[in-house]
Amino acid sequence: MNETQHDPAAATWPPRFRWGVATSAFQIEGATRADGRTDSIWDTFTRRPTAVADASNADTACEHYRRMPADVALMAELGVDTYRFSVAWPRVQPRGRGPVNPAGIGFYDRLVDRLLHHGIDPWLTLYHWDLPQELEDAGGWPHRDTAHRFADYATLVFDALSDRVTTWTTINEPWCVATYGYADGIHAPGRTDFPAAMAAAHHLLLGHGLAVDAMRTAATPSHRFGITLNLGGVHADPAAADQARRADGLNNRFYLDALVHGRYPHDVLDDLAARAVTLPIADGDLPTIATPIDVLGVNYYFDTTLTAAGETRRDPLTGMGWPVTPHGLTDLLLRLTREYPGLPLVVTENGSAYPDRPDPRGYVDDTERAAFLQAHVAATAAAIARGADVRGYFVWSLLDNFEWGHGYGPRFGIVRVDYDTQQRIPKASAHRYAELIRSSRP
């Protein structure tokens, strides 16, 4: 029986294994002008013609800012024990400088209390892509000062919430921030400058290290710090072997080696030099980036297969055209355990978008998504059985939401959101996930 056929109910899960759901502030909160919040780069980006596929924005999104108590109650009904959410930087520190905004941090204060009331552990992400626009105007992530501004912001949030939040993630998916935002221009801020993107990648990692160091000065032994990376396997036929090496280097090893070993891979530096790109590394940067972390968040969606003609994708595919490769999650978790030993892992995002078809009541019988989740939970169990130190699995996402440059077309939620009425209706996948959680517990 292979990983995708394994029955998760028969798996042996580690003690206190976390079962969670994940969201991000910009994608669900709405209320973009409420209570002193200022613009992020994504607010600005959505105003560009053609930047978002359906010309939408996140001004309303899922109205989570107004409907938070009901959303937390919904999580409790699902039986999750952990909620991974992000804090909106321009909501708690408008314009990215100065003191904390009491109204902005007050929302997260209430959220944390509500979660704890329901027995759900808050897993806080400090940065999920919503850089204050004023900091982008000053240079953004390619500019070194942004890393220091991020550490200041992290300290403000930590001071306010660390008495109740024990797990702190600094940056979500620095590869996406740097590559999509500064090289490819398909995410905010929409720049197309590869050298700037690589400077951004370095400063994102530096900001992570500075933030962890700053928070640790006031931390207790119960606090845990980490970062979340989007990772995946890269496979190739012999004709594309070097292309696969480069892709794995820039997408995976660049971040992992710096965070764990305090160095960038030599072959990646050589590849960058061939493109006349030099990273803006100053004395002390690499030890700061490699400050010890307590957990690595792993966001996994699919593996990539390359041929001499380019990337190839074989069925089955999700509604995003992404291949369904649960075996790749097992392989990735085992690779991380083998090549970066001693680093506890949590699958912090895993999910899929499919063309949901609600019935007249709004219910979605999303059998494909339910099967996707079951297969990837089984893949996680298989990795654990083979020695991977995996301590949690979080579904992306709790709610249908604003899917960045795709707008409101793709739906990743296990709970349907009717954007006209804001009604929440759990899908079949939500019920299946709840069953998987129940079956894992004694």
Going by helix content, strand content and strand pairing, the class is: alpha/beta
Q: Fraction of residues in helices?
A: 40-55%
Q: Helices and strands, in N-to-C order?
A: EHHHEHHEHHEHHEEHHHEEEHEHEEEH
Q: Name the shape in a single word.
A: globular
Cα distance spanning the termini: 24 Å
Count the domains: 1
Q: How would a crystallographer describe the biggest sheet?
A: 8 strands, parallel, barrel
Percent strand: 5-15%
Overall pLDDT: 97
**What would you say the CATH architecture is?**
Alpha-Beta Barrel
Specify the CATH homologous superfamily.
Answer: Glycosidases
Total count of strands = 13
| Rg over C-alpha atoms, rounded to the nearest angstrom | 21 Å
Side by side, the strands of the main sheet go 1-2-3-4-5-7-10-11
Q: What's the CATH class label?
A: Alpha Beta
The low-confidence runs, each spanning 5 or more residues with pLDDT under 50, are none
* CATH topology (level 3) name: TIM Barrel
GO cellular component, one term: cytosol
EC number: 3.2.1.21
Binding site for substrate: 27, 128, 172, 301, 396, 403-404
Keywords: Carbohydrate metabolism, Cellulose degradation, Glycosidase, Hydrolase, Polysaccharide degradation
